[in-house]
Amino acid sequence: MSIQPLRGIKVVELSNMVTASLAAMTLAQQGAEVIKVEPLGIGDKLRHFGSQKMGVSGVFNNCNRGKKSLAINLKDPTGQEVVRKLALDADILIHNYRPGKMSKLGLGSEALRAANPRLIVCSLTGFGRTGPLKDAPAFDHVIQALSGITGAQGKNGKLEFINMLVCDKITAYTAAQAVTAALLHAARTGEGQHIDISMLAASLAFMWPDGMMHETLQGDGVVHLAPMKAYYQTIKTADGFISLAPFGDDEWARVFNIFGRPDLAEHPKFKTLKARGLYISDLFEELKKKPLTQSSEDLLTALRDADIPCSPCLPTEEIADHPQVQAIGAIETQNHPHLGELQMAAAPVHFGGQPQNSLGPAPLLGEHSELILGQYGFSPDKIQDMKDSSII
Q: Is the pTM value of this prediction over 0.90?
């Protein structure tokens, strides 16, 4: 058995889409038991995005493995009472409902923590709990736009998205770290707490170290070198594309020799670290002027022999077969009882230096409703009555 530091921790998740789902699955990968509370009908909307099979999408599976699903009507008082019972026995309750909705359901943080003082309630919102946008709906690309990510990605006056759910995932991992810190506080003091995290604030914190370095140093005397995005250049080879990341003078001199341009080592724009910092875009343009005749593999071999950080630019369908990806066990396969074979990213953290155990499959909607209710003291007759009344 691998080390699972969160074994014995119970998590109740009420969520729609990615943020709370992925945060809770991260906790499950570290040993926590997660009960996912979903609405009746279509359940979590993430079930219906992108590639799917039997009502389970690939992205839903990738954010919800190893959980139990309770499908319940939270507008019904009995449904609300069920969640209160779950919270009474839980260590963490995480949700991404809009501000005020949980209180309207009788499931507000103060009430739940009054009944269970050790409970950690983590509330994820789009824009936060104050300000003109506090009640506005938010999705990943909306937050990318407001947090400056589209500005950081764009070039030549054009704004561009990162074409994946980057803000959702940033917020999810921020939440997983925060609730783990809160668990440590609870272990020391016996006290739970309320945690607020907005996608906007989490994304700005993620952006700031490099994406906003030009906005960090204020006042006179600031010299603005090239932004980090100027270094993100692909190099076309005879049969594909590669990426490289030399830094010091010696590394760049070796790169210039490999590319057949030793003259660039003495060029005033490229000779020193500061000069390259000013003219890195021009440097890459020079490297790209002469089409390369080497294959990607030959060029990468020469760069690695010269100790230059480099890699091929892989299409997504080739990533799982790369020997380094396979060597570290970063991708795993699993047989789902309903969906057949699945391919997924393995848990990236190896506690004790050992890979984590594989999580079970993502649940079908309401797959564990009766099991969960039975574990929390509801009789078979009561469960049947709740089914007949469309509460579960």
A: yes
